[in-house]
User: Fold this.
Amino acid sequence: MQASSSSATDSLRAGNRVVGFGIAAIVLILLGAALFLFLNLPDANEFNARVERLFVENDLKSGAEIKLLEILAQSGTSFSEVLQSYRSVIFVLLVFATALLVATLVFLVTIIALNRRISAIQRSGIQVATMVISREARAVYINDMEFALTEAALETLAVLAEARMDDEVLNGAQIEAVISGRDAADCDEAAGATRIKRLRDALGNQLVSELLVKTVTRRGYMLAVAKDALKMI
Assistant:
């Protein structure tokens, strides 16, 4: 148990390191892309500087020439404002891209971790410390969790519990025979399978019920519960 706990802790730490490195890599890549874009964008005042240079280097006297320079200067101002807005838009888009990529990475790692956890549960089954079947309360108590059952579902569970105490695996016909009091040869396999399905439905969660009431290939059904954890009152 200690080795298993240590392994789980190491796996958790490794997963956290992967997430940390992934987030850092995403931030660094996008930061590099942002620097590259901003450094290669033209200077917002470059146009105005060229207009000013043109004005200084040329002796402009006519009104038409001066008017043309004023128009060019106004165009330069508009260009500067547009370029500044482009910088703001690029910055916002990069921030959104960073947030989306980080969220995607976190969700991906979370999904992988959940899939591994579900696979581990499927391999090992549900750890049931106690399972008390109460005919009077018409309920079953699994690890202090109460599940109310119908009379038919309770009968099916009781039959499976008795079979588990004897290390037996019952098929559908045998389950139906025990409950109905008839011979197994006279009972239909589908009737017992229907009882198992109703029991699983009564237990609720599909994953829990499928692992608790296990199907043994070509043999039948059994409870995946230790004998000493079973009790009927």
